[in-house]
């Protein structure tokens, strides 16, 4: 029998990064997708960027 791996190689998390599910409404996603495309990022990359900027702006994270 074949061994079934529930995760494909594309689902393997990047070393040092935590993956999780986020649920947002469709209109917000579409706006976020457009914004990400405007800045040559993936939607995931845009979310990471925005979260990082918010942490820096709030003083919770030091600027790298």
Characterization of this structure:
There is one protein chain. The chain has 64 residues and is mainly alpha-helical. It has a domain at 24-64. 44% of the residues lie in helices and 0% in strands. The chain contains 2 helices and no strands. α1 (26-38) packs across α2. The longest helix is centred in the last third of the chain and has 15 residues, at 43-57. The protein is globular and about 30 Å long. It starts with 25 loop residues before the first helix and ends in a 7-residue tail after the last helix. The model has no long low-confidence stretch (mean pLDDT 87). InterPro entries: Arc_rbn_hlx_hlx, Ribbon_hlx_hlx. It comes from Chryseobacterium aquaticum. This is Arc family DNA binding domain-containing protein.
């Amino acid at each position: 029998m074949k061994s079934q791996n529930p995760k494909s190689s594309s689902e393997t998390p990047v070393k040092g990064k935590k993956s999780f599910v986020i649920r947002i409404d469709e209109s917000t996603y579409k706006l976020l997708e457009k914004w990400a495309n405007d800045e040559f990022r993936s939607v995931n990359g845009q979310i990471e960027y925005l979260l990082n900027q918010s942490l820096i702006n709030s003083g919770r994270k030091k600027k790298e």
